[in-house]
């Protein structure tokens, strides 16, 4: 899981026209990377993914990653299965605290918006970071903002314990 998450973030950031803007990463309080989120549905649908989150410390360095899970359900006209890499950039402490202290729902507990991309997005994000979370996805090589309202994110305590032993 750690290698996949690292690879996804590195690949996205290597393409200047598709990268998460530097200005957004500078103000980020945390970044979550969830590779291979599976979404499946036939009238009723669901999504599931496992990934990592790292929190920016007061000195500007990043914490060791914590393991997380993303789940969600949906209803409506839908059919099929897809796999998508998801990156979430948390822009305030409230969203990070909610994640650390338990599971929360995107859109209900923290506002989310499709994140800006590319080298020219820096100017549009300076001073206008209104959402608590900016979401990105990559499916079949295409990278863009993604709507995740209703998805739940929580710490995967069992995975953390297996890796860190506490």
From TrEMBL:
Domain spans labelled Ysc84 actin-binding: 71-165
One Pfam family per UniProt: Ysc84
Transmembrane segment boundaries: none
An example Gene Ontology molecular-function term: phosphatidylinositol binding
Family annotation (InterPro entries): SH3_domain_YSC84-like (IPR051702), Ysc84_actin-binding (IPR007461)
UniProt-recorded name of the protein: Ysc84 actin-binding domain protein
């Amino acid at each position: 899981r750690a290698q996949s998450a690292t690879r996804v973030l590195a690949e996205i950031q290597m393409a200047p026209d598709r990268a998460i803007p530097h200005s957004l990463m500078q103000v980020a309080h945390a970044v979550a990377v969830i590779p291979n989120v599976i979404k499946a549905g036939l009238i009723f649908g669901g999504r599931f993914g496992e990934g990592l989150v790292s929190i920016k410390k007061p000195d500007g360095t990043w914490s060791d990653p914590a393991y997380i899970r993303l789940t969600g359900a949906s209803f409506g006209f839908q059919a099929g299965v897809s796999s998508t890499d998801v990156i979430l950039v948390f822009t305030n402490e409230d969203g990070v605290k909610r994640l650390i202290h338990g599971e929360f729902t995107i859109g209900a507990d923290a506002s989310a918006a499709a994140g800006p991309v590319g080298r020219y997005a820096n100017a549009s994000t300076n001073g206008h970071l209104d959402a608590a979370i900016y979401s990105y996805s990559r499916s079949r090589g295409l990278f863009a903002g993604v709507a995740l309202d209703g998805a739940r994110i929580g710490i995967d305590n069992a995975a953390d314990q297996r890796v860190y032993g506490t």
